[in-house]
Amino acid sequence: MSAHTAIAAAQPNRFVPGYLAATMPQSVGGMPKAQRSPAADPLATIAQVKVIDREQSIFAEGDAADAIFRIVDGVIRLYKLLPDGRRQIIGFLQAGDMVGLAFAERYLYSAETVTACTVQRISRSQLDALLDAQPSLARKLLSVTTSELVAAQDQMLLLGRKTALEKLASFLLALSRRTDGNRAIALPMSRSDIADYLGLTTETVSRGFTKLKTSRLIRILDGGKVELLDHDALADLADCA
Amino acid sequence: MSAHTAIAAAQPNRFVPGYLAATMPQSVGGMPKAQRSPAADPLATIAQVKVIDREQSIFAEGDAADAIFRIVDGVIRLYKLLPDGRRQIIGFLQAGDMVGLAFAERYLYSAETVTACTVQRISRSQLDALLDAQPSLARKLLSVTTSELVAAQDQMLLLGRKTALEKLASFLLALSRRTDGNRAIALPMSRSDIADYLGLTTETVSRGFTKLKTSRLIRILDGGKVELLDHDALADLADCA
DNA sequence: CGAGGGTTTGAAGCAGCTCAAATGGAGTGG
DNA sequence: CCACTCCATTTGAGCTGCTTCAAACCCTCG
Fold first, then answer.
1. Which of A196, B119, B134, B213 has a CA positioned 20 to 30 A from the CA of residue A183?
2. Residue B183 contacts by C-beta under 8 Å, 6 or more apart in sequence?
3. Mean pLDDT, residues A88-106
């Protein structure tokens, strides 16, 4: 079982339309897989399933936005680039998340797999038809999009005002929240992915991990997993200094 | 006529539900005021109008979120605070924008007037009733919320990966876009507001303005206005280095 | 005209970056 | 099973862009 599967398994049926920003800090109600009836998921019936290798592009910023994707398994990163190559990762997406711009001609960011992924592809026209046929869907999507906006605002606070160590602590806690508060969390993405998500360099991320390790706040486990040894201390770090 | 009125007049009927993030980089279609029929604005009929002084609180992070607000005139800032007082401004809002969390118990950020403002207050229960009565409203709100998310993602790129001067150039261009691309733009907010929006200090913002002035890219006008002398050069700065 | 606030400018410090090298771990082939 | 390669990660050392601290400037308003 690969690392990302562990994340995916704990992930409830999150549903994210349009732009998907930083999904990390979003708190989600836990609902066991068994309770999800297929009837409640009209998208599944029209989706086309694709399996994609790790580190592959799904679409790039500027491509015609003719489809949206829902992640069934695996981890995906969304990012924007500056002309000189500087990269900002907008979010890491997991099982249940949806990707793709709902109301624009072209994708405004790029999407790549971090791990091997299974995704559902839903064409734009099919989604539009579904929205027409089922007006309640829009309200549901509105609710989830609003949550995404909340997450994006948390990330703005992080990027604009937190120190490197505070950013790292926030990141780890957000991951922990996504996996139902588990102490051990999977980190399928590289240091450089984390750096580009937090507005840092890989070296600074690495030094931060070292500092958290020597402070006994975290412990590195096998398979790229991290154990949060002192949740409260990390929370203090994350919220402030 | 106060400075903010100039911004407001150029502002079409933007409509922003739920969390309102950085609205700056959002491009909006221009529609003259005369074409807006009151019938197309069901919110206006149930809204309670309030006039608020400059530098006043509208609501604070953590307050019960029992109403949303639509700005009729003036400029408002939304921000989040860290426990030690560091502030990140999430966005500046203007006429047409809506503020207030649609699907949470409490506001997740604070809102304050920058200039004197006129706002419409719509209670949460009234909005919910309106959404039930008029399902198409949800889809419209979804569209606009998605635009907000796009703006938030642009701001993440700015905060995480741009230099001080690039941030300033981006900010000025975004303001210019909001006022239909006018060369002269109003800056009703203080240096410290701008700093907290761009993840900088007031001193760095001030030095940036000075550098843009001596480079002949901008010119300071009366009444806190700024004229963009070289739009293209600013655009080069904003997108990259 | 004087007080009070925001803004600008100056000088010094430092958090995080850059450049560089060492370490380590996973995959590959002998 | 080991040797080797490759590349991500870690560590080190110096640098720099932004911050911090401080003071001067300047506008507005009473």
1. A196
2. B176, B227, B228, B229, B231
3. 88
Complete domains list, chain A, with CATH: 3-159 (2.60.120.10), 163-239 (1.10.10.10)
Q: Which amino acid does the sequence have at A94?
A: Q
Query: What's the Å distance between residue B210 CA and nucleotide C8 C1'?
Result: 9
B151 dihedral zone (left: phi>0; alpha: psi -120 to 50; beta): alpha
pLDDT tier at A44, thresholds 50, 70, 90: confident
What is the predicted pLDDT for the residue at A39? Answer: 52
Q: Tell me, what's the pLDDT at B2?
A: 38
Please give the structure tokens belonging to residue B12: 């079409």
Distance CA A33, CA B76 (A): 43
User: Which residues of chain B neighbour A160 with C-beta distances below 8 Å?
Assistant: 88, 159, 196, 198-199
Assign B229 a pLDDT band (cuts: 50, 70, 90).
Answer: very high
Positive or negative: CA dihedral B37, B39, B41, B45: positive
Which residue from A188, A56, A46 is spatially nearest to A120, judged by alpha carbons?
A46
pLDDT at residue A239 is higher than 90: no
Smallest CA–CA distance from B107 into chain A, residue? A150
pLDDT in tens, A132-190: 888 888 888 888 888 889 999 999 999 999 999 999 999 999 999 988 767 899 999 99
Question: B-chain residues within 8 Å CB-CB of A201?
Answer: none
Query: How would DSSP label each residue in B27-39?
Result: ------GGG--GG
Comparing C-alpha atoms, which of B223, B240, B97, B114 is closest to residue B170? B240
Q: State, as a whole number of angstroms, the distance between the CA of A57 and the C1' of C30.
A: 35
- pLDDT tens for residues B76-105? 999 999 999 999 999 999 998 989 866 788
pLDDT band at A40 (very low <50, low <70, confident <90, very high): low
Contact with chain A for residue B85, Cβ under 8 A: no
Nearest CB to B153; choose among A21, A135, A240: A21
C-alpha A196: how far from its chain's center?
Answer: 14
pLDDT at A98 over 50: yes
Which residue from A minimizes the CA distance to B108? A150
Nucleotides of C under 7 A from a protein CB: 6-11, 15-20
Shortest CA distance to B56 belongs to which of B148, B119, B105?
Answer: B119
Q: What is the dihedral of CA B23, B25, B27, B28, to 10 degrees?
A: 20
Report the percentage of chain B scoring pLDDT > 90. 63
Q: Which helix (H) or strand (E) holds A145?
A: helix A135-161
Contacts of B83 in chain A (CB under 8 A): 239-240
In this complex, do A150 and B19 lie within 8 Å of one another by their Cβ atoms? yes
